[in-house]
Amino acid sequence: MSSFQIGAPARRAGEARAAHVAAEVRAEMARQGKTKGELARALGVTHHTARSRYDGTQPYNLIELVQVSLWLGVPLGRLAEVA
Q1: Which of 68, 31, 36, 71 has its CA nearest to residue 54?
Q2: CA distance 65 to 83
Q3: pTM of structure
Q4: How far apart are CA 37 and CA 45, in angstroms?
Q5: What is the b/e burial string over 65-80, where b = at least 16 CB atoms within 10 angstroms of the residue's CB?
């Protein structure tokens, strides 16, 4: 049985996209004066989990991105847009 492994270039690209999404979320939260505690409540997760998403150390999953976009009142594409 073989296992699927993502190659280093694809992994780096995914990490760059995740960092970009986290930066967009942080920027929008700053514009709106929202806190990490409020983010945790909006996502229904612990402060630790919210902080790891906010800091970009763990990527947001699709459901979380939808929740964040609704909570911030911005289109999902704005948060996930890659220049």
Answers
A1: 36
A2: 18
A3: 0.82
A4: 10
A5: bebbbebbebeeeebb
Length of the chain: 83
Question: Which residues, other chains included, contact 27 with Cβ-Cβ below 8 Å and sequence gap of 6+?
Answer: none
Domain ranges of the chain: 35-73
Q: What is the DSSP string of the chain?
A: -------HHHHHHHHHHHHHHHHHHHHHHHHHT--HHHHHHHHT--HHHHHHHHHTSSPPPHHHHHHHHHHHTS-HHHHH---
Q: Given the structure tokens 């997760």, which residue do they identify?
A: 45
Per-residue pLDDT tens digits for 11-60: 676 678 889 999 999 999 999 999 999 999 999 999 999 999 999 999 99
